[in-house]
Design brief:
Length: 137
């Protein structure tokens, strides 16, 4: 089960394959944008979420988030991405575990994400990454 840190690691590897340079990352114990990357004078800021707690000392560690928690996490990620778009200085994306719950939540807002130019990275348990939205930079 992917933690937020696992999602960040996989997305950074995918960005590197696509020619992006990772400028910074923030683990779950740090503040700031989860991933900041650049390529050709474009800055990309990504908000990542995991499928379980990343803290081994919590009761939620290793236990998948329920439907309500997934909905809240996706909403928080989308809100952060919208804030990035509104600031107008960077491109924005969200990165989420590739599972039915996360895909369902994203599917309900995909047209809006596409209209705003917000990318979506879905990360599988094996670390592979899919970018199913119109954002393909």
């Amino acid at each position: 089960m992917l933690t937020e840190n696992d999602v960040i690691t996989a997305v950074c590897a995918e960005l590197s394959r696509r020619g992006w340079e990772t400028l910074s990352t923030a683990t779950t114990r740090q503040r700031g944008d989860d991933v900041v990357a650049s390529r050709s004078n474009i800055v990309l800021r990504i908000e990542a979420k995991g499928a379980t707690s990343s803290k081994p000392t919590t009761a939620r560690y290793g236990v998948g988030f329920n439907v309500r928690q997934v909905k809240t996490h996706v909403a928080m990620a989308v809100l952060r991405a919208m804030s990035v778009v509104s600031a107008g200085e960077s491109q924005a994306a969200i990165a989420l575990p590739d599972d039915a719950r996360h895909r369902t939540e994203v599917a309900s807002v995909t047209p809006a994400l596409d209209a705003l130019g917000i990318g979506v990275f879905f990360v599988s348990n094996d670390g592979s990454v899919e970018v199913p939205t119109a954002w393909r930079t």
